[in-house]
Amino acid sequence: MIAPVAMSILAGVLIGLSRQVNGRLSLTKGALGASFWNHLVGAIALALAALAAWGVSNGPLVPPGLSEAPLPAWAGGPLGVLFVAAGSWLVARIGAANTALLVIAGQMVSGALLDTLREAEGAPIRALGVAIILAGVAIPRGSKG
Amino acid sequence: MTAGPDPAAATRPRVLHVLAALGTGGLLSLMVLCNSTITAHANALWGSLVPHATGTLAAALALALLVRRSHGERTGSAPAWAYLGGLLGALTVMLSSVAANTALALSGTLALGLLGQAGFGLAADRWGLLGLPRRRATGRDLLALGLILGGSAILIFGAPA
């Protein structure tokens, strides 16, 4: 159980670390430039990994099911560009902890909203979670700066 | 995109920042929806490769259209490591998809990931890690942190199975 716990926490740390690294790059390249480099380097690394996986397996390079994925699912990339650019812009302005917490809040609340729109069960407990998160967002902070 | 991060403004989230950050989190929910759909049709590697590739194209296009306006005041060069954020993102996807398939399940992975993010954020601000501004957490910051993480835990663990 120790290994998965460590991996999960490490995944969270890496999210913060990559935002910090991209935030540093945004100081000289701009938020959009940082997002471009983030995606280019990630794409090259993943393409090499895909080639390596293709090399050891006997399967096709491109998974056959990919062409059947609905077209809107391909929008994840352009959305990611905005996501990384916004994160880089924010972390240099309001700090790493504020950025992380507010982005988490937005993710959780919008996820709960999507669940409600899809009529998933458990609406009352979702409303409670959302209310507590929004209370946290609404606390006035950092005014000494 | 007006002024760069001046030290005084860097410590205080304004309404614009809060709205931008909440919207950014909303983007993440949509991204997860898109990327997990690709993963379901292909596999986890392609579920990350596809958005990174289409994102590279989209960013290049946006830069080509906007670059003249945003070039203004930036000078100097970034250290080489600053270009490697994308490697961390690619690694994150692999780590979390491995962890989500263990006894922890997706909810435990998500919750621990939030703890990791919050902890890293506090440390990064405290010591000004990687060349970004330092910022000391206040009691109110910690209260907000507790509420946001607590509410998130309710959403993550309170969902009916």
TrEMBL record, chain A:
The keyword Transferase does not apply. This is EamA-like transporter family protein. GO terms for cellular component: plasma membrane. It holds the Pfam family DMT_YdcZ. The keyword Transmembrane applies. The chain crosses the membrane at residues 34-54, 74-92. Keywords: Membrane, Transmembrane, Transmembrane helix. Coiled coil: none annotated.
UniProtKB/TrEMBL annotation, chain B:
The keyword S-adenosyl-L-methionine does not apply. Keywords: Membrane, Transmembrane, Transmembrane helix. InterPro entries: YdcZ. One of its GO terms (cellular component) is plasma membrane. Pfam families: DMT_YdcZ. The chain crosses the membrane at residues 15-38, 44-68, 80-98, 104-122, 142-159. This is EamA-like transporter family protein. It comes from Rubellimicrobium rubrum.
